[in-house]
Amino acid sequence: MNIVITGASSGIGREVGLYLAEKPQHRIYAIARSEKALRTLAEACQNRNIIPVPLDIAGDRSQLRELKKRLGEEAGRVDILINNAGYLVNKPFVEHTSEEIASVVAVNFTSAAAMIAELLPLMGRGSHVVSIGSMGGYQGSLKFSGLSWYSASKGALAILTECLATEYADRGISFNCLCPGAVQTEMFSKAFPGFSAPVSPAEMAAYIADFAVKGNKFFNGKILPVALSIP
User: Fold this and answer.
1) Alpha helices, DSSP H only, in 48-200?
2) Does domain 2-226 have CATH number 3.40.50.720?
3) Which range, of 108-112, 131-135, 198-202, 215-219, averages the lowest pLDDT?
């Protein structure tokens, strides 16, 4: 399978890449801004099937067009897209700066939508788009102060998932959104210093990776909580 993962330089994304790379038949395009971190990720892969793609998904859209061109030439088809990149600022609603709001919305929602739009021509029947949302963006779940903009942007990603599942059902492309609870990533530690999450990045990554490969056989257009807490 040809697999594209955003936010692959650290945390859940990095672990998803390593997990999927254990199968030599998979070719993983790992996307993140840090070329050094991606190179380290590729070197940690025994099967040498992780391809680093340094790219700012929230930057100029021409970068996404170049990515589509490259994937078309090298792979010909995208079987799985995992929209994993995320950005979190823990701050009261009215204290977010315009720059912080723009970054949160761009990374968590509009860049994921743009990535999907660019790569759709390379997808066909059986392709699976998995967007990583959040329990904060899951309707009816317990909400936390300081995460309004983050949660709202992840909620938008969930609604987009439902819309695209309907729009592309005739082409046999599946769209699902997984909403993890607290995971002990660098982003979580920075946003909630002193707190420990009940799930490690590797544990969550194993679930996401297996779902990306097999989940579209059972789900389409679904927003699925992946948390130990009750919504």
Assistant:
1) 62-74, 98-105, 111-119, 148-167, 186-191
2) yes
3) 198-202
